């Protein structure tokens, strides 16, 4: 596991700019447009039908080559991307339509409408952690065990009640040894998320239930906030219900270009 004491765990490369919605240009090719119109209708209906807790999925493995090319051009790339490690490894990318995600991997290719794809929740699942034996803690690690005890307690509370919490580690006095020990103890989970929606944000699951590293960086990729979120998925990575409703309207407007 890669550990940088000043910054916490290692992550995917940061995006270089913040994504903003720009209506897509439809391909000039008549065959692509004809194939794509059918899929835009399916996507609009999926976005419109979405309700929290009831994701809508469209399997793209059945899409003909023309439709695949159309969707690649029209859906584009949005603010959030992720890697869900496992069998198989899955690449997740939000499209320019918030709340519409593309999930791809070996033998896998589908669109999902939701706040985040369900696979991120599934791959991030972790057990409640037992606190380490005090005798195993190095002598130069002073404050981190107390922080970990509070994190574990908050994790257990979330699992019981759903109460979220945020730990701003910049406000906690910890040495490099403390932070390195905390990173090693929490471990690195199977989900990595990069978001450009609220500045540059890097997120990684841990080996503790509902516990995530959440770090914000400035335009120079310098860390400006180092925190731990106790939540099913950190809110910064999620599409809001209003955004999904807006995406339905935007897809409808794109379909209107055919009229």
What is the rounded Rg? 20 Å
* H/I helix tally: 6
Strand order of the largest sheet: 3-7-6-5-4-9-10-11-12-8
CATH superfamily membership of the largest domain, which one?
HupH hydrogenase expression protein, C-terminal domain
Strand-pairing-aware structural class: alpha+beta
The CATH topology of the largest domain is: Ribosomal Protein S8, Chain: A, domain 1
What are the secondary-structure elements, in order, as H or E? EEHEHEEEEHHEHEEEEH
Whole-number count of domains: 2
Describe this structure in words.
- This protein is an alpha+beta fold and 259 residues long.
- It folds into two domains: 3-12 and 123-237, Ribosomal Protein S8, Chain: A, domain 1; 30-118 and 240-256, Ribosomal Protein S8, Chain: A, domain 1.
- It is built from six helices and twelve strands.
- The chain has helices spanning 30-49, 65-75, 118-124, 144-161, 176-186, 241-256, and strands at residues 3-4, 8-9, 56-59, 80-84, 90-94, 100-105, 108-113, 165-168, 191-195, 200-205, 211-217, 223-230.
- The chain has a ten-stranded antiparallel sheet, with helices on both faces. It has a two-stranded antiparallel sheet with strand order 1-2.
- 38% of the residues are buried.
């Amino acid at each position: 596991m890669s550990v940088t004491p000043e910054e916490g765990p290692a992550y995917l490369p940061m995006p270089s700019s913040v994504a903003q919605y720009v209506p897509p240009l439809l391909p000039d090719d008549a065959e692509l447009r004809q194939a794509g119109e059918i899929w835009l209708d399916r996507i609009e209906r999926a976005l419109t039908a979405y309700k929290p807790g009831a994701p809508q999925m469209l399997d793209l493995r059945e899409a003909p080559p023309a439709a695949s090319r159309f969707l690649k051009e029209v859906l584009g790339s949005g603010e959030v991307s992720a890697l869900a490690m496992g069998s198989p490894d899955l690449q997740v990318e939000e499209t320019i339509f918030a709340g519409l995600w593309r999930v791809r991997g070996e033998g896998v290719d589908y669109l999902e409408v939701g706040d985040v794809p369900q696979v991120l929740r599934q791959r991030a699942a972790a057990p409640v952690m037992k606190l380490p034996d005090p005798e195993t803690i190095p002598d130069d690690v002073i404050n981190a065990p107390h922080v970990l005890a509070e994190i574990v307690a908050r994790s257990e509370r979330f699992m019981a009640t759903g109460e979220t919490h945020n730990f701003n580690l910049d406000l906690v006095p910890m040495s490099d040894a403390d932070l390195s020990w905390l990173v090693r103890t929490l471990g690195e989970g199977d989900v990595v998320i990069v978001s450009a929606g609220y500045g540059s944000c890097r997120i990684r699951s841990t080996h503790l239930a509902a516990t995530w590293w959440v770090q914000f960086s400035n335009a120079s990729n310098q860390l400006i906030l180092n925190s731990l979120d106790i939540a099913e998925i950190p809110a910064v990575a999620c599409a809001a219900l209003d955004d999904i409703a807006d995406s339905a309207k935007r897809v409808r407007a794109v379909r209107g270009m055919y009229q």
